[in-house]
Amino acid sequence: MTDARPLGAAEATFIAAARAGDPARFALVTERHRRELQVHCYRMLANYDDAQDMTQETFLRAWNKRESFKGHATLRTWLYRIATNACLDFLDKRNDRTPVPAGLPGSELSYLQPYPDGMLPEDPQESVVARETIELAFIVAVQHLPPRQRAVLVLRDVLGWPASKAADALGLTVASVTSALQRARVTMREQLPGRRLDWRSPATHELSDDERSVVKAYIDAHERNDLDGLMSLLRDDLRFAMLPEPGTLSRTARDAVDGWVSGGLFRRGRDDWRCVATTVNRMPAAALYLRAPGDAQYRLFNLAVLRIADGRIAELTGFDATGKPWLGLPPAL
């Protein structure tokens, strides 16, 4: 696996650290890649906790294989290769992570977790943080692919690797990579109808004014216990799910609202809310804090992640936000 470029400073530093067996120098040169590698693992696995674990596994494998690095490829390429194969090994061992059946709605993916924007790489120009390839819809669509198709799609179409480089990383032939990519693209088109699939073209990063306005209205309605106001923000064909609870999927706004009401929303004990606008997966979201009777503070309860289309909420994916400090949200207000 060769990038046809002279040995860079990072590669030279890594080789020196490897030869010296110096873990401190090793960590110094590899740590700068942590965030992008973690995003890469998240795309493969759709789960933040697992992505953290596989990123750590990547560094462990890199340390154990440090003497095999000769600088023929960039250090970044070498680490991506290790991370990809660590994820594939993880998927091979997990019976609960087989490709999502075609008929299963994506928002019912029980192991799906949001990705905090604060943990994304800092460079907004990096292809690894393009909004179109970190949104929940994309992450879920990727889960419909068999693991090696998944890896090929991410390496080729998201990271822009040539077929030969991806083939070398995965131990496949160029023909196999090309075939896998073609099949993966067909599945992605089925899962993401109407969306562009050329993720290497200029991508968006910021929320639109429309999105910010809808989030503000959603928060206002929620804090006022205004069920009609919430209903007015939802598209009729709203898709709603509350994860990781199974069986919560609703396909219409009416069904979603009926479920919220039957679950006790805005009744006593579920009627004292404060909400904070935030973003995850480069998508608009609201962190919902509930104050129980007799409690002096509002406690972090759920995270509502919104996909907004034409000024209304088309998808609302709720996540249990308790016990997840990595979300970067205060536990209480």
Q: Provide the gyration radius in Å.
A: 22 Å
Overall mean pLDDT stands at: 88
| Number of structurally distinct domains | 2
Give the overall silhouette: globular
Strand order of the largest sheet: 1-5-4-3-2
Q: What's the story with the biggest beta sheet?
A: 5 strands, mixed
Percentage of helical residues? 40-55%
The end-to-end span amounts to: 51 Å
| Computed structural class | alpha+beta
Order of helices and strands: HHHHHHHHHHHEHEEEE
How many helices?
12
List how many beta strands DSSP finds: 5
Model description:
The chain is of the alpha+beta class. It has two domains: 9-191, no CATH class; 209-327, Nuclear Transport Factor 2, Chain: A, CATH 3.10.450. 44% of the residues lie in helices and 14% in strands. The chain contains twelve helices and five strands. It has helices spanning 9-20, 23-30, 34-45, 48-64, 75-93, 136-142, 147-158, 163-170, 174-191, 209-223, 227-233, 253-262; strands at 234-243, 273-280, 283-290, 299-309, 312-320. It has a five-stranded mixed β-sheet with strand order 1-5-4-3-2. A hairpin with a 2-residue loop joins β2 (273-280) and β3 (283-290). α4 (48-64) crosses α5 (75-93) and α8 crosses α9 (174-191). It is globular and about 65 Å long. The termini are far apart. The model has no long low-confidence stretch (mean pLDDT 88). Belongs to the sigma-70 factor family. ECF subfamily. It is an enzyme of class 2 (transferase). This is RNA polymerase subunit sigma-70.
